[in-house]
Predict the structure.
Amino acid sequence: MVIDYIILALYVVSMVAITLYTKNRSKSVNDFLLAGKKGLNGWMSAFAYGTTYFSAVIFIGYAGKFGSQYQLAATWIGIGNAILGSLFAWLVLAKRTKDITSRLSAKTMPEFFEKRYGSRKLKIVSAIIIFLFLIPYSASVYNGLSSLFETVFNVDGWIIMLLLAGVTALYLFFGGYFATALSDFIQGIIMLIGVVLMVIFFLNYETVNWDISSLKWFTFGSENTGLYGDTVSLLSLILLTSFGVWALPQTIHKYYAIRDDKAIMQGTVVSTLFALIIGFSAYFVGGLYSKFNLTATNPDYFIPEMLHLVIPVGVMGVIAVLILSASMSTLSSVSLASASVVAVDLYKGKINQKASDKNVNTVMRILCLVFIAISVVLAILNEKFNISAIAYLMGLSWGTLAGCFIGPYVLGVIWKKVTKPAVWSSIIGSLALTVILVLVLGYDKSGWLCDFSTAIKNGISCSPLIGVICMMYSLIDTVVVSLFTKAPSAEIIENAFTDKKIETF
């Protein structure tokens, strides 16, 4: 056990060292958000994308809950994440996002919306939505780590949450995106080594003993044939977790800061391979759940109990660092995305439009700390009162954000005819649809005579399906409304899509 703590301590020391190394690399807003004028190479951008994509939520919440529910069929979520969420996302969005945000000088998604559609109000509303709905996602990451350390290391979850928050706040506050990207690269390597070791030990464990032929790889034919049956549920998860990242500000941000076309091609390949290894391995381990006799009734503790049984002393420290790495990279990216939309889009855009670059940079650093603090408090409350499971906190966050923004953002970088009314319709309609579906599916699942709190809880448990429905609505609504409303002005189209040397679109 001592060696496990030594490994954890070395990891924390390395993160502090990164902070010291990068503390002078984020003097301006551009440095803090985009790692300077040159941007990042393909490897660092790909690892930043992958480590932001996968966190403790997948290793603890998703792998545990859905691995126990679908067995090895859960691995299709990881495969979908690699093909749809990484490969196709990079091919469709990376170059387009890099080009259009460079032309518009947009540093955040709300700023992109303002300049692409000519609406400051749109920027403010989208910034508020992003900040509010990234908080439960961040809290779910803290809860995932809490479950691991409580079960495996017998340490109170709140202690781990505070320690993790402190380290994340340290290197994010002083180093900005460059510190985050550098740590993501190191943490990505740790994640790859860790998942390979994890799979090897699980496949050689006596209870598994390579006998996985009895575990199902598909959900078709499940006895659960209701509206939210196993097949529909699994497909919803694949679509939500694979296409949701197409419109999340913390993943889209990686395209803003990539160096050039060569780096984009490199990043496409590396991010896809990274996602395939990490995603498949996490859900594969979760799919072995039925081979174990576990005492936990909360799915958030399934994976920690399995790790406690299978992973030997010494290696457990590596696995803990694996999950810490995945989580810290996600937390730093989410915190940076949230703080930037408030500092750049609300503070500079609305409250103090004459604020200097240095002033905005300072506000953004402080807001990173505020966001981390709020997320930790929510995570501790969630753990104490058991408000919702980890997987559903993430699903609610992803589904709402992707539902609001996938049409306006994805179609907005591809199609010139997307209009401002279409964007408003997507955002307002998706928010309303989310509330309606939570109530309808919640009452349908628990009985129409149940109390309101039970309906809400059960409705949120359907968040993957709700997210997918909202994403489909957003795409269809954006197209239809755009066709029947006034086209954007020629000036907006020229600024967004025209390059002096080449016509990109």
User: Anything to note?
Assistant: The chain has a mean pLDDT of 82. The chain has 19 helices and no strands. The domain at 2-81+124-399 is CATH 1.20.1730.10 (Sodium/glucose cotransporter).
